[in-house]
């Protein structure tokens, strides 16, 4: 199926952009579905976001935009409508152009992560969770874990106050989940989640000390590429179960495709 | 060959965009060459050009932009360097990002048109030519016909003064070509060129009265889609030889690909 002049466009904006797996997955689906559509990667630096966004908003055949690091919060001022997950998370990963031209954003990182956990056979309900990283994706994941019934949520972030603010917001929205900020120590946790960008670039430090992991714990990573991160290697060496970023990524993509009106996804 | 996160991008900007044939041709070449690259159509209105351009300039993996109506002159203020054909024509159809980030534009409509004529077995050298339309593409075609050795160039445009200005510029650059503005009457001409957008949209009027055509004349149209325009139908009915916009389009694409550094184009 060639991409013609009548193609509908979708784009993912991020920096770095080369590691993102969405274009390959989406374009393979478009081919399978026989759609004249393209999903293209756009490498846009944080400082250039506003200019890039104005250009995409002016591109009339661009039906949807996906945001990845570092743009998930930067996009908020440019949207006309926010969906329920985006309002809670304060971040957006998917934007659609409505028939009247308005732009509506929502956030599927959290629901995609939980869907990925469950697809990998790991149920978050009742779990004690340590989560590293409380940025755009981290907020969404924490809310989704609380919504899914996690019993405890220990949040850790290197930015001062960030984990505390998220713990308060979780407690307000989901009082049944005991949320608190704390040190990045996995000892005693059932599920450990890396929601930081560490692992995306070769040579990144680990987000926490894996020496404190023990057999039987579940370690889930949000990094989709490489699928096997140094953190997951270290977890496996400790006898932990692993859930890779691919599981989250596939869950996200399915939810984003539904939001963007791509019928028949995953067929 | 899927489009991945590491894909290099190319875009064509225009309005209307659905009829452009470039995306299908370029993406087929990318597939044949095994390149991780995409050439996407972007529907951008004239009033939105500056915003759209700023966004594309900020997209770091976008290596080249192709301009079609109505943007071939609007892009001029946004470029750092102009090639020789663009300087003469006062219009640009292809822009490349240099390694230092500067944007260089050039214009291949004229040379592509002449290459298409020759590929169709029609030699412009020594010809008497009537050309309708003296806009961005029209200027480029007139200069290329003069450079190719056309003996006479009768130029016609509905915008007051436009044909006169182009005739003066042709005379200054190519004194051996007798260029003048005149009425759109094909009688007595060897080659008749439609360089107006008429024929792009169903229901457009013809650019001149085909009742004045006679057998043996050559009628060339710049409209690439539909390939067989109502003007070419009328010319065929009069016994004229025809050169469709596809010939020009293929010549343009080959020249643009070389400018954009796509090696191996066209096998």
From TrEMBL, chains A, B:
SUPFAM superfamilies the UniProt entry points to: Aminoacid dehydrogenase-like, N-terminal domain, NAD(P)-binding Rossmann-fold domains
Keyword Chloroplast assigned: no
Keywords, comma-separated and alphabetical: Amino-acid biosynthesis, Aromatic amino acid biosynthesis, Oxidoreductase
Pathway in which the depicted protein is active: Metabolic intermediate biosynthesis; chorismate biosynthesis; chorismate from D-erythrose 4-phosphate and phosphoenolpyruvate: step 4/7
Domain Shikimate dehydrogenase substrate binding N-terminal: 12-95
Xref: Gene3D superfamilies: Leucine Dehydrogenase, chain A, domain 1, NAD(P)-binding Rossmann-like Domain
Full protein name: Shikimate dehydrogenase
Provenance organism: Belnapia mucosa
